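Milestone 3.1: sequence recovery, worked example.
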């Protein structure tokens, strides 16, 4: 478990630090980038939020609050509180046309910054848990690497960066988005800002 949580944080830090992100859309307080490497598409959404960074961190690290702003989360329950900083959740997501609803078993690792100017980190990855085997009514899907980095701007505002490495399981939610026929990434980002503020 120690290794898993370390590699969870390390994978997100590595993804965030990759060079070669391409800006795809810019709104007033939301910017969207993509990064392609082989078959893996990564997404970065940067949001300017008018709350202190520690407040954003506490709201974003509790995934049970996620369905209040992210309509891709139908339900979310804690399966295991591994430690103060690590929890394993079971999440269900709505079906895309012609498919069963998806479900995920995810490890969420949260870290406060060790030094000034370092971000707060909330890292997410799929794990397997004997107590939560795949269920026939859901299509079990995988999150390779996702999460948030939260940078303090001043005492009352912060920059929230959301990252996600997109696999084929998550692709249907994004395909319409990047071709411009849906605005769900922007809509979700704006809902997230509204929720945090």
């Amino acid at each position: 478990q120690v290794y898993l949580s370390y590699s969870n944080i390390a994978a997100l830090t590595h993804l965030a630090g990759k060079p070669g992100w391409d800006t795809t859309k810019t709104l007033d307080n939301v910017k969207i980038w993509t990064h392609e490497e082989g078959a893996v598409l990564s997404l970065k959404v940067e949001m300017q939020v008018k709350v202190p960074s520690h407040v954003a961190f506490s709201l974003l690290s509790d995934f049970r609050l996620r369905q209040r702003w992210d309509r891709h989360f139908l339900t979310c329950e804690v399966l295991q509180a591994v430690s103060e900083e690590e929890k394993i959740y079971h999440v269900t997501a709505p079906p895309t046309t012609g498919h069963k609803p998806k479900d995920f078993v995810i490890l969420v690792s949260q870290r406060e910054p060790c030094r000034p100017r370092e971000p707060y980190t909330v890292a997410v990855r799929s794990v397997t848990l004997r107590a939560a085997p795949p269920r026939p009514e859901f299509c079990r899907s995988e999150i390779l690497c996702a999460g948030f980095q939260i940078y303090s701007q001043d005492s009352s505002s912060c920059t929230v960066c959301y990252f996600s490495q997109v696999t084929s399981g998550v692709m249907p939610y994004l395909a319409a988005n990047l071709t411009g026929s849906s605005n769900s990434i922007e809509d979700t980002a704006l809902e997230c800002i509204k929720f945090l503020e």
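The longest strand covers residues 40-49. Residues 15 and 121 are 13 Å apart (CA to CA).
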